[in-house]
Amino acid sequence: MILDWLLAGALIGTAAGVLLTRDLYRSVVLFIIFGLLMALVWVRVEAPDLALAEAAIGAGLTGVLFLDALGHLNPDKAAAVRQKYRQPLLSGLAFLLALGVTGLLWMALVDSPQPGVHLPEIVDQQLLASGVEHPITAVLLSFRAYDTLLEVAVILVAVVVGLALRFSQEDQPAETQVLSPLLQKMLVWLLPLMLMVAIYLLWIGSYRSGGAFQAAAVLAAMAVLMRMSGTPIPGHSNLYLLRIGLVVGLGLFLLLGSVDLVSGGNFLAWPEGWEKASILVVEGALTFSLGMLLFSLFEASPAPKQASMTRGGGA
Amino acid sequence: MLIDLLRSLLILVGAAFFLVGTLGLLRFPDAPTRIHALTKVDNLGLGLIVLGLLPGVASWPVVFKMILIWLLAIAAASLAGHLVVQAWAGSQNKETSSRDS
C-alpha cells in the first residue's frame, strides 16, 4: 500500500519533471525514468505484458530515439522554441486546455457507464476457440486482431516515411560507432543470448506473458547494439531484403487473415483448425518485421550536427 | 526458522547495499567514482538479494534463471560502466585540448 502511494507520487513527480525542466537532456532522462516507473505500476496492477512492452518500447527504445534526436537538435533553436512557449498567452491557453481535458477525464471517471458486458469473463469463455491459452495474446491476435493489424500498418507507414526522408538526404547515414574491444568481446556472448530471449518471449506468448512486440523490441535492441559496435548485420545493405523484411509481418497477417474470407468466412478469422499455427506463424513474422521496423526508425536518423561522444554509451 | 532469519538478513543487507550505492551515485563528485558506486555496490546488493531469495524457490529452472539474471546484471553493469567512462574520458580530453589551444 505504501509502495503504491510512493509509486504514484514518483510517477507524478517525474511527469512534472519531464514537462517543467528547462534542460532537454534532463527531460529525456526523466522520461526514461517515468517509463520504468510506469512499467513497475503495470506490474503492480498485474499486467506483466504491458510492463514488458512499456519497459522495452516506452522507456528503452523511445528513450534511445529521444536521446538520438537530442544529438541532432541545434541548442539555440531548441532554446528559442522553448522561449516561445514561455509567452504568457500561449502558456495560459495551454493551461486552460490541460484543465479542460483533466476535467473531462475526471467526469468520465466519476460518471463511467456501467459496462453491460463483463469482458474478462467473455474472453475466458471464448479462450478455447482462439487456439492460444494466454488471454492477452488471444485478444491481440484473435478477438481484436483488426486493432493489431492496424497498429502494425501504422508503424510500417511511419518507417516508410522515415526511410524515404532518409534516402532523399544527401549526407551519409550516421556513423555512431563505439570503439571498444570489451564491447565486441561481450557481444559475442550477449547476442546469442538475446536472440534466445527473443525467441523465448515469442514462444511463451501463446500461454504466458510475452509475444511479438516484446520479442521484437529485443531483436531491435540486438540490431542497435550490432550497429553501434560495428558488428556486420547480415543482409544489412541489401535494400530488397530490407523491403521484404519490413512488410513480411503485415503481409503474412493479411494473407492468412484472408484465407477464411476467400472461402466465404470472415476477414481475420483464422483458418478452422489451424488457429494456433496461424497465430504462431503471424507472430513469428510480425516479430521479425517489427524488430526491423523499430531498428529502421533508429537507423533512419540523420548524422549528428556535432559529433558528441557522450551519446555513445546510451544504447 | 533459522534459515528464514538468514534469508531476511541477506535480503536486508542487499537492500542496504543498494541504498549505499544510490547514496554514492548522488554524492560522489564525478563520473568514474559514481560508476564505481553503481556497478560494484549495487551488484553486490543484487547478489545478496538473489542469494536470500534462492532457498524459497521451488523449481530448478527458476533458480537457474535468477542466478543468470545476477550474472547478466554484473556483465551489463561492467560493460555499461566501461563505455560511460570511455565516453567521459573522451569528452574530458576534448575539453583540455580545446582549453590549451
UniProtKB/TrEMBL annotation, chain A:
<dbReference type="InterPro" id="IPR050622">
    <property type="entry name" value="CPA3_antiporter_subunitB"/>
</dbReference>
<dbReference type="InterPro" id="IPR025383">
    <property type="entry name" value="MrpA_C/MbhD"/>
</dbReference>
<feature type="transmembrane region" description="Helical">
    <location>
        <begin position="6"/>
        <end position="21"/>
    </location>
</feature>
<comment type="similarity">
    <text>Belongs to the CPA3 antiporters (TC 2.A.63) subunit B family.</text>
</comment>
<feature type="transmembrane region" description="Helical">
    <location>
        <begin position="90"/>
        <end position="109"/>
    </location>
</feature>
<dbReference type="Pfam" id="PF04039">
    <property type="entry name" value="MnhB"/>
</dbReference>
<feature type="domain" description="Na+/H+ antiporter MnhB subunit-related protein">
    <location>
        <begin position="186"/>
        <end position="271"/>
    </location>
</feature>
<keyword id="KW-0812">Transmembrane</keyword>
<dbReference type="GO" id="GO:0005886">
    <property type="term" value="C:plasma membrane"/>
</dbReference>
<feature type="transmembrane region" description="Helical">
    <location>
        <begin position="186"/>
        <end position="205"/>
    </location>
</feature>
<feature type="transmembrane region" description="Helical">
    <location>
        <begin position="51"/>
        <end position="70"/>
    </location>
</feature>
<feature type="transmembrane region" description="Helical">
    <location>
        <begin position="148"/>
        <end position="165"/>
    </location>
</feature>
<feature type="transmembrane region" description="Helical">
    <location>
        <begin position="211"/>
        <end position="228"/>
    </location>
</feature>
<dbReference type="InterPro" id="IPR042106">
    <property type="entry name" value="Nuo/plastoQ_OxRdtase_6_NuoJ"/>
</dbReference>
<feature type="transmembrane region" description="Helical">
    <location>
        <begin position="279"/>
        <end position="298"/>
    </location>
</feature>
<keyword id="KW-1133">Transmembrane helix</keyword>
<dbReference type="Pfam" id="PF13244">
    <property type="entry name" value="MbhD"/>
</dbReference>
<keyword id="KW-0472">Membrane</keyword>
<dbReference type="InterPro" id="IPR007182">
    <property type="entry name" value="MnhB"/>
</dbReference>
<feature type="transmembrane region" description="Helical">
    <location>
        <begin position="240"/>
        <end position="259"/>
    </location>
</feature>
<feature type="domain" description="MrpA C-terminal/MbhD">
    <location>
        <begin position="11"/>
        <end position="74"/>
    </location>
</feature>
<keyword id="KW-1003">Cell membrane</keyword>
From TrEMBL, chain B:
<keyword id="KW-0812">Transmembrane</keyword>
<feature type="transmembrane region" description="Helical">
    <location>
        <begin position="6"/>
        <end position="29"/>
    </location>
</feature>
<keyword id="KW-0472">Membrane</keyword>
<protein>
    <submittedName>
        <fullName>Multicomponent Na+:H+ antiporter subunit G</fullName>
    </submittedName>
</protein>
<feature type="transmembrane region" description="Helical">
    <location>
        <begin position="41"/>
        <end position="61"/>
    </location>
</feature>
<dbReference type="GO" id="GO:0015385">
    <property type="term" value="F:sodium:proton antiporter activity"/>
</dbReference>
<dbReference type="Pfam" id="PF03334">
    <property type="entry name" value="PhaG_MnhG_YufB"/>
</dbReference>
<dbReference type="InterPro" id="IPR005133">
    <property type="entry name" value="PhaG_MnhG_YufB"/>
</dbReference>
<feature type="transmembrane region" description="Helical">
    <location>
        <begin position="67"/>
        <end position="89"/>
    </location>
</feature>
<keyword id="KW-1133">Transmembrane helix</keyword>
